[in-house]
Specification:
The protein has 15 helices and 18 strands. With 427 residues, the chain is α/β, with parallel strands linked by helices.
């Protein structure tokens, strides 16, 4: 891709909803942001994009794959003109002793020929804080939180200096909160001292957003910055201070697409279940039964599509597989967890494709995996990120044809009236 005149910040996120969260943060802080789904190669993005977030699925991929995809994305972003690279991972630092945060950051440092990067997954708004290098989730250490039992990335050590130290040969240091509170100049001095001592990574304490702002300001001249979405919140202001980014009054609205609206829900989280009830009370809704899907397959999807197409003439519709925990357990006991999941994901993906062909242009999807399946089925490779609908969930617009207005929400996000609000906000 040719140099993109406006591009300032290139981001690599290790999962899809994390990428959206970061893009949302950048938009709220005044950057025009595009989220790319998967690897950016071969893609043309609008020339006025100031930040690009490549959403990889590298969090739990084999190390070599995660490294390769991250480095290739980094190279593409640099060629597109990015002046700074941000590597985004989870605010609970989801990883194992094998990686992938350490190996990916090592590889990005090599690619960018830089000896240093910051490490700060803190997200105080959601209770993730770092004190003396220890990550807390709410009131407990990461290692005492439910993350200790995560099926793929169990986090049994809260000391990030140690955790990262096991994932890299480079040395890892700490910038404690006392230094952070003395402001950006003190933080920069601490970076210099660490660098002189051959320390490649600075884990930086952050307990409140002010700490993240101070850290962000200290990162203006770094080529590589890493963290959760919070540590990126001040980066747009750095570009404004440098005269590279325009100051805007607020988040920019997306151009309207018009067309019919539908909600597809494959998330079974408590928040989603409440959202389904709210929507059902106001609009036509159809429940998909995984057991029926297992028995009759595509016929079920075809019936759902016929039903939705008819209802769409007069109203937005909801199609959902979302079910409370007991029902999900029963279904999983009969079908197996994976089969139940993939039956539902496949059904929602096929439905989304059919609905778009039937004229739906405004689409709300609940569920991280469900969103991934839908976006792939309708062939979306990149999204322009618009104003926030609810915390962490922006309105988005697909690039390419046909233009779709989308709200993609992961499990527990969104208020009870989220579906109704999202339909209203997607124009
Ligand atoms: P979340 O963001 O809430 O985790 P996801 O879409 O990522 O939502 O994951 C939910 C998973 O549960 C998906 O794989 C989906 O297909 C599956 N699923 C949805 N409804 C049911 C159900 N009724 N029974 C079993 N599995 C289901």
């Amino acid at each position: 891709m040719a140099q993109n005149g406006a591009l300032l910040l290139g981001c690599i996120a290790d999962d899809f909803t994390g990428a959206t969260d970061l893009a949302n943060t950048l938009v709220r802080n005044g950057m025009r942001t595009i989220q790319i789904i998967g690897m950016p190669d071969g893609l043309d993005v609008p020339a006025d994009a100031e930040a690009i977030v490549a959403a990889l699925k590298s969090r739990t991929a084999p190390v070599a794959e995660a490294v390769e995809q991250s480095v290739a994305s980094c190279r593409w972003l640099r060629q597109a003109g990015a002046r700074q690279i941000y590597f985004k991972y989870c605010s609970t630092f989801d990883s194992t002793d094998e990686g992938n945060i350490g190996p990916v950051t090592d590889a990005l440092r090599a690619e960018l020929k830089t000896d240093f990067a910051t490490v700060c997954p803190a997200f105080p708004e959601t209770g993730r804080t770092i004190y003396l290098g220890h990550l807390f989730v709410g009131e407990v250490l990461l290692s005492d939180s439910p993350m200790r039992n995560h099926p793929l990335t169990p986090m049994t050590d809260a000391n990030l200096v140690r955790v990262l130290g096991r994932q890299t040969r480079a040395s890892v240091g700490l910038v404690p909160v006392g230094t952070v509170r003395r402001g950006p100049a003190a933080i920069r001095n601490a970076f210099e001292t660490l660098r002189r001592n051959d320390v490649a990574y600075a884990v930086v304490d952050a307990i409140e957003d002010g700490d993240l702002r101070r850290l962000g300001a200290a990162c203006a001249d770094l080529t590589l910055v890493t963290g959760g979405s919070g540590a990126a919140m001040e980066l747009p202001e750095n570009f404004r201070r440098a005269g590279l980014l325009a100051r805007r009054a607020g988040e920019e609205e997306l151009p309207p697409v018009g067309g019919k609206a539908a909600v597809l829900s494959g998330s079974c989280s408590p928040a989603t279940l409440a959202q389904v009830e709210r929507m059902r009370a106001r609009h036509p809704a159809l429940k998909l039964d995984p057991l029926d899907l297992a028995e009759r397959g595509n016929a079920v999807v075809a019936e759902a599509l016929a039903w939705a197409t008819a209802e769409l003439e007069t109203s937005p519709v909801l199609v959902y597989a979302s079910a409370p925990p007991e029902a999900v357990k029963t279904i999983q006991a009969k079908l197996g967890r994976e089969r139940a999941g993939s039956l539902v994901e496949h059904a929602l993906a096929t439905l989304a494709d059919g609905l778009v062909k039937a004229g739906v242009r405004r689409l709300v999807v609940a569920g991280g995996e469900s969103s991934g399946a839908v976006v792939q089925a309708v062939g979306i490779r990149a999204l322009q990120i618009g104003p926030q609908i609810d915390p962490g969930i922006p309105a988005t617009l697909s690039l390419g044809e046909p233009k779709l207005a989308l709200a993609l929400k992961s499990g527990n996000f969104g208020a009870e009236d989220f579906f109704l609000k999202a339909i209203d906000r997607l124009r």
